[in-house]
Amino acid sequence: METPDVRAVVTGITAEVLGVDEAALHSANALTDLPTFSSFRIVEIVERVEEELDTEVEAGELTPDNLSRLDTLVALFERTLRTSGVPG
C-alpha cells in the first residue's frame, strides 16, 4: 500500500472546504482566524479527510487544540494512521 501524503491531503481538503488557497492556510496563525472557518466546516474537513485516508479519528482526539491549526490537524491524522497501522 502506498503511503499517503497526509499533509497534502489535509491541506488540500481544508483549503477546498474553507474556500481559500493553500497560501492563506499556511499564512494563518490558526484556522479560526480565517473568515470562512466555522465548527460545521471543521466537522466537514475531518469527515472528508477520514474518508480520503480511510481512517477514523478517535472522538477523544477531536479537541480544540488538535483542530485549531493546520499543523496540529496534520499531526492528528498522522497519529491516527500510525495507530491504525498505516505508515504515515
UniProtKB/TrEMBL annotation:
PROSITE patterns reported in the protein's UniProt record: CARRIER
Source organism of the structure: Streptomyces dubilierae
Protein name stated in the entry: Carrier domain-containing protein
Origin: domain of life: Bacteria
All copies of domain Carrier, residue ranges: 4-81
